Each structure stands twice: as structure tokens, then as C-alpha cells.
Automatic annotation (TrEMBL):
Gene behind this protein: panB
Family statement drawn from the similarity comment of this UniProt entry: Belongs to the PanB family.
Residues annotated to bind 3-methyl-2-oxobutanoate: D53, S54, D92, K122
Quaternary structure annotation from Swiss-Prot or TrEMBL: Homodecamer; pentamer of dimers.
Protein name: 3-methyl-2-oxobutanoate hydroxymethyltransferase
Catalytic activity field: (6R)-5,10-methylene-5,6,7,8-tetrahydrofolate + 3-methyl-2-oxobutanoate + H2O = 2-dehydropantoate + (6S)-5,6,7,8-tetrahydrofolate
EC primary class: transferase
Essential cofactor(s): Mg(2+)
Annotated catalytic residues: E191 (proton acceptor)
Coarse class of the protein's main subcellular location: cytoplasm
Pathway annotation from the record: Cofactor biosynthesis; (R)-pantothenate biosynthesis; (R)-pantoate from 3-methyl-2-oxobutanoate: step 1/2
Length: 273
């Protein structure tokens, strides 16, 4: 089997991610939302598992990430944590759970950590949420930032196209990245921005920078697991590499099952008591 299995079986921590950046070892990160998938992803040797609010899209079928609730994120996070031994589990704080005020944000963060037993949180935004980020970190909770395309702000942008192409937005992104590092974030996700800008941020910061649609000159990559496994047939953005065609594999298996049931081929004598 082709692949990369780390010989280091120790639990991945924020400290170890920084060490990986320092020695130039790229960080692998992938989403999971349930126990079975998390077991597979962790068993394959993933460094970081993100319980993304993309669960709103890929698990619940919503058009955006906005509808998913704190309770639903905690349900997904608990399921993932039960399946993971080595990877660091990072949970997205959902829309509406931290943008209001600092104490509300802190209360949401504490609920996720207490109830799910995850390792860290991820939050979208820079200067606008920096007070809340600091509060949460001062409570001992590791936070990963998220800049560039921030799907929780889709109604402000109006489109999912590449962000920070103009100078003003790029300058703000660089400032925000430094603010998040100074606030104590242990890592940063950059989504759908020009590769050169992402590379610049990764070189300027000491914390690991993980990209999605942000080119290769960063410290690691993250994708949505259903997308890279080819389960979502219709979703094929340029940045996505599909490592399997599970849509075809699963449709074929399910069609054969239907056919076997209809023709009374399943179950046979060996498949009964
Ligand atoms: O929710 C998510 O899956 C994410 C990744 C796309 C980074 O935030």
C-alpha cells in the first residue's frame, strides 16, 4: 500500500506541530465528522483531524456553514474524538457562537472542550474577533486562526471565489495573521488565497500555516474528506485533488445490493442462521 505512516505514535500536540514546521516536515490535516471515518483517518496517520463546520454542507446538506449549531458541532466532535488515538482533534466554533461578545465566545469554547474532549478550536476572523481569541487562549484552550475565504462570512462576500487578490485585502490578511500569532494562536488556516501571499505569511509567522487552495509554499494542507475521496461528484474546484472515486465505488456496491435483494440472491444459505 502506498502511503506515509509516521513511526511516531505519540499524540500530536500544538508543540509538536511547531516542531514539524521548524524541521520542515509538512503537516497533514483532513476533516472528519463521525466515529467510523475518524478511525480510518487517524489510523492512516493523519496529523490533525478537523471537525469542520463544513459538516453543515457535507453531513447535513445545507448550502452554507451558517446553520450548524453549537450542539450539533459538539455531537460531531464527540463522535470523532471517540475514534481518534494519535491525531490532534481541532473543532470549528460555529457561526454565531463567538462573534457576539467575548464572554459568549468563551462560554461556547468551554462547552466544546468540556463536552467533546477535543484538543483545540478553530475560529474564522482576524482583528474583529481578537479579544475573544485572547480570552479563549487565556482560559488554556489552544486556538487555530482561519483567514482568507471565511465561509461563515459568505453573505458578506456573495461568492466563494479567491480572496485577497487586491492589495488592501492582502495587507489586512497579513496584519490579521500577525495579530493572531501575537494573540497566542498555535496555527493558522489560509483558505483560497493566492499562493504567493500564503507563502509570504507562512514565512513571516513562526506558527504553522495550513493551506486549502493556498498553494504549496505553506506548512501543511487541509481538505474536506468527502471531497478528496470523491464522494461529492459535483464539487470539483481547481485546488481539489481527488484520491478516489468513492461516488462510483459506493453507487456500484449499493446497486449490486439492490439487485441481489430483488433477485433473492442475498442472503444465501451461508448468510443465514
Ligand atoms: O470547515 C472546514 O472544513 C474548514 C476547512 C475547509 C478548512 O474550515
Amino acid at each position: 500500500m502506498a502511503g506515509y505512516i509516521s513511526e511516531d505514535t505519540r499524540k500530536v500536540t500544538t508543540h509538536r506541530l511547531v516542531e514539524m514546521k521548524q524541521r520542515g516536515e509538512k503537516i497533514s490535516m483532513l476533516t472528519s465528522y463521525d466515529y467510523t471515518m475518524a478511525q480510518i483517518v487517524d489510523g492512516a496517520g493523519m496529523d490533525v483531524i478537523l471537525v469542520g463546520d463544513s459538516a453543515s454542507n457535507v453531513m447535513a446538506g445545507n448550502v452554507t456553514t451558517l446553520p450548524i449549531t453549537l450542539d450539533q458541532m459538539i455531537y460531531h466532535a464527540k463522535s470523532v474524538v471517540r475514534g481518534v488515538k494519535r491525531a490532534m482533534v481541532v473543532v470549528d466554533m460555529p457561526f454565531g457562537s463567538y462573534q457576539g461578545n467575548e464572554l459568549e465566545g468563551l462560554a461556547s469554547a468551554i462547552r466544546i472542550m468540556k463536552e467533546s474532549h477535543a484538543d483545540a478550536l478553530k475560529m474564522e476572523g482576524g482583528e474583529e474577533i481578537i479579544g475573544t481569541v485572547k480570552r479563549i487562549i487565556s482560559a488554556g484552550i489552544p486556538v487555530m486562526g482561519h483567514l482568507g475565504l471565511m465561509p461563515q462570512s459568505i453573505n458578506r462576500y456573495g461568492t466563494y471565489t479567491v480572496r485577497a487578490k487586491d492589495e488592501a485585502e492582502a495587507d489586512k490578511l497579513v496584519r490579521d495573521a500577525h495579530l493572531l500569532e501575537e494573540a497566542g494562536c498555535f496555527g493558522l488556516v489560509l483558505e483560497k488565497i493566492p499562493a504567493a501571499l500564503a507563502g509570504r505569511v507562512a514565512h513571516e509567522l513562526n506558527i504553522p500555516v495550513i493551506g486549502i487552495g493556498a498553494g504549496g509554499d505553506v506548512d501543511g494542507q487541509v481538505l474536506v474528506v468527502q471531497d478528496m475521496l470523491g464522494m461529492n461528484n459535483g464539487f470539483r474546484p481547481r485546488f481539489l485533488r481527488r484520491y478516489a472515486d468513492l461516488h462510483t465505488v459506493m453507487t456500484d456496491a449499493i446497486s449490486r445490493y439492490i439487485s441481489d435483494v430483488k433477485t433473492s440472491d442475498f442472503p444465501n444459505e451461508k448468510e443465514q442462521y
